[in-house]
């Protein structure tokens, strides 16, 4: 069948777009399939709860899972309030062209581009040595908090800026206080941006290895407090894959757990934010 | 309400100057004039929405009940409760129909839910929306038609019991039928509220206004060229500019 050239180029275009989209999905499934193929035989309830033995060749990842969650909790407990407050300042109070907003945004963009190993060295110098926290879950969590702040702030700011100005005008004309508007209307309306920020931040924190080597350390015992050293899942994977001959299978199994954790946390974040914040307004 | 020597500039750019005007209590004052002559800017001076615009600078006096509201010490929350505002594009909050009315009431200190609900019903009846929405008060306000949304916004302003209502082209985003309904509603506010309405629609101004104020750009910024009783301005305008504008020859 003959078609005008314009229609042919449209068809080729559509084909290319579809092919690229399928490729992206394909890569993801390839990674998951590869992980499952190599690691699924080691997965069990025991694997999730037992302590590692023989440098991780045997046993499980119980203490490592606990350390990871603790590091993440410290990171989020510190970064979410600071991040939200900064985003609110930038989006609602600082004039877009003022020096305050400009300099904060500029520093955040630079920070977002700093390699994580530099954050690791900074965290080691500040939290571990200068503030005397040593190699600890606290040092690690605080270092990660510094690292994810730029991500969190910029996406929360984008979320707030995406809220129509009509709401702010309506609120001002009705004599509503800015805090009431913020908590009841603007933040709920910005939920999509806040959720993206949270998900990106948790993902980056969970995936982090380099920054944690220097701060939370790699002790694989069960931590007794936040001042103990703790090994994260990503460090465990790195260690098993690079330093422990015969550890590959369990490295794969740990990676499956990490991926599962990531997906679970993403879904939970979305669900909770939507219920708690998004439920306050109608869309 | 009286305005003395009001001038507004955005950064270095003047928007309004030499504005002197009296606005009569409980009358409908229509502000007419071509685009870009400072009508909306003037309106925002009356409830200090100018504060929201970065770089906006206001001089002169706007007296309301013997107080100058351009004064920095004025309580803005109280002022905006006294002076309500309706915008060109209906802007209900992303809440249910009921909450659009009760949320501001709650923020202004009406603690009991039953009182808030009662006030909401009175306001909805006042704008003729009650029968249309009473069965779906918990539905999103964004689901209403444009005209209904605009009446909801007027109800929301009325629920706070203001003395003055500022309206910035309240009908221009609506279809002709909805526009007519809203116009009748505005006309029904005469005698109970001081209404200042900016409009491009001269026929509408003729139908609803008690007083008319004509704005025009002079020496690079907007100013008042004529003001007076509606009948007088429309039938025997004192200014050649007004006469030409009303005949459709200028503006």
- Percentage of residues in DSSP E strands of chain B: 25-35%
Order of strands in the sheet with most strands of chain A: 1-2
Average predicted confidence as pLDDT of chain A: 91
Spatial strand sequence of the major β-sheet of chain B? 6-7-8-3-9-10
User: Mean pLDDT of chain B, rounded to whole units?
Assistant: 92
Description:
The complex is a heterodimer of chains A (283) and B (251). Chain A has helices at residues 5-39, 45-49, 62-93, 99-113, 116-130, 137-161, 165-173, 178-189, 191-207, 210-213, 233-242, 248-276, and strands at residues 52-53, 58-59. With 283 residues, chain A is mainly alpha-helical. In chain A, strands 1-2 form a two-stranded antiparallel ribbon. In chain A, strand 1 (52-53) and strand 2 (58-59) form a beta hairpin. In chain A, helix 5 packs across helix 6. In chain B, the strands form two sheets. Chain B has a six-stranded mixed β-sheet, with helices on both faces. Chain B has a four-stranded antiparallel β-sheet with strand order 2-1-4-5, with helices on one face. Chain B has helices at 39-45, 76-82, 97-107, 113-126, 130-133, 146-159, 176-188, 202-208, 230-235, 240-246, and strands at 2-10, 13-22, 28-32, 56-64, 67-68, 83-86, 164-168, 194-198, 211-218, 221-229. The model of chain B has no long low-confidence stretch (mean pLDDT 92). In chain B, a hairpin with a 2-residue loop joins strand 4 (56-64) and strand 5. Classes of the chains: A mainly alpha (283), B alpha/beta (251). Chains A and B meet through helix 7 and helix 8 of A and helix 2, helix 3 and helix 6 of B.
